[in-house]
Amino acid sequence: MIRKLRKKLIIVLMIILSLLLVGILVSMLLSTRMNYERRSINAFNDVPSSSNSFDRTVMMAMPVASITLDTSGNYSVTQNQIHYVSDEELIQIASSIAETDDEQSLGIVSSYNLRYRRYEEPDGTVVFSFSDTYIERDSLNSQIFFSIIIGIGALALFFIVSLLLSRWMVKPVERSWEKQRQFVADASHELKTPLTVILSNTEMLIDSNAVTDEKNRMRLDNIRAESKRMKALTEALLNLARTDSKPKSTAKENVNLSFILSSAALMLEPTIFDLGRTIESEIEENVTIHGDQDKLRQLADILIDNAVQYGAEKSPIVVRLKKQNKKEALMSVISEGIPLSAEDCTNIFERFYRVDASRGQIKGFGLGLSIARSIAEEHGGKIWAVSDGKSKNTFFVKLPIIGSPV
Predict the structure, then answer these.
(1) Beta bridge partners of 290
(2) Range(s) for CATH 3.30.565.10 in the chain?
(3) Which CATH architecture describes the domain 171-244?
(4) Which of 69, 78, 89, 258 gives 126 a disulfide partner, CB atoms 3.0 to 4.6 angstroms apart?
């Protein structure tokens, strides 16, 4: 849980910092672009028209050119400081612009990297002013490139800082979680002894026939039943506390998952048959993974037992195992019963969560699937549930097989 909390915190910090950085860089880029456009448009004011002569003392902001179109339809180049565009090309560009109906316009000629302005003087002469945008575009492209480089570097630095900050920020939560885990483990461990004593003494009294009164024997049966239930709960809590602790160097080996799943189905087959139900196995042979054999058997038992408890009467249980690809195997347990909602499919793996329809009807603590999720995650896999919305519920477990990293 602490690891997930750190990941979420890092993601949130990175999103906030990324949005801030993108906002700064985009605003700088837009500001630079607007500044270039302003300089380019201001340069048009220094371009000589047909009614005045060019003053060479005027310092141009950038290379410009000017063409006039008189009332007789003749074009003349008044000025051309753009070295890569000839006068003939300027006249062709101006004539193509003149075909538009706008009396005054401002635009871009992308093929020549030119910005133009067209306006008509009082005497009817049309003036076409051009400014070179090559430097502008080159500068903007360079700014974009360096902004990306700076952004990547800044995000890498932010990521390192976020790692350090997340570790510092979740430290109190981690300490609190560790204390809670330790308390649950200690309490569960301490409860096992008195519960075992109560259960053993109760069974001895029942077996000895020392209590002959029928009501008292019923009370002893109730004590034994509830003691067994309490013992099962403490063992489940102790198991969860162990899975919550920091990973230990558990002995893992190459395990035949096909054999484990087949054995679990075969072991529960008599119980399922007594309930008037059937179990079908569709298990691919020799699916081998690297893991803990006892925990994987516990995972299989939990899923099949869950299908037994919550399945509808006389409905079949289907257990499947197959290789999805060279790296993963997919285990599934299918049963029919009360359909799970989308919310239930997500929350059913949380501790002590019970589907409302099953509360008070089926014995249990809501810990089995939580333990199953811990076992799946410990082996580098994941578990999830899917319902068809009618009657069929399927629990999937995806695990890495031999040859893929755990």
Answers:
(1) 254
(2) 253-400
(3) Orthogonal Bundle (1.10)
(4) 69
Average pLDDT over residues 143-164: 87
Tokens 């995806």 sit on residue: 398
Q: How many other C-beta atoms can be found within 10 angstroms of the C-beta atom of residue 106? A: 15
- DSSP code, position 337: B
CATH class for the region spanning 1-169: alpha beta
Torsion angles phi and psi, residue 232, rounded to 5: -65, -40
Torsion of CA 68, 71, 74, 78, to 10 degrees: -20
What are the residues facing 32 on neighbouring strands?
none
DSSP code at position 311? B
Alpha-carbon dihedral sign for residues 344, 309, 397, 315: negative
- To the nearest whole number, what is the mean pLDDT of the chain? 81
Distance CA 58, CA 48 (A): 11
Q: Which distant-in-sequence residues (6+ apart) come within 8 Å of 220 by Cβ?
A: 202, 205, 206, 211
Over 70: is that where the pLDDT of 243 sits? no
The answer to whether the pTM exceeds 0.70 is no
Which regions of the chain carry the CATH code 1.10.287.130? 171-244
List every span in the chain annotated with CATH 3.40.1840.10.
1-169
Q: What tokens were used for 332?
A: 């599934």
For domain 253-400, give the CATH superfamily: Histidine kinase-like ATPase, C-terminal domain (3.30.565.10)
* pLDDT, position 335: 92
Rg (CA), the chain: 39
Residues 6+ apart with CB under 8 A from 231: 192, 195, 196, 199
DSSP class per residue in 87-111: HHHHHHHHHHHHTS--SSEEEEEGG
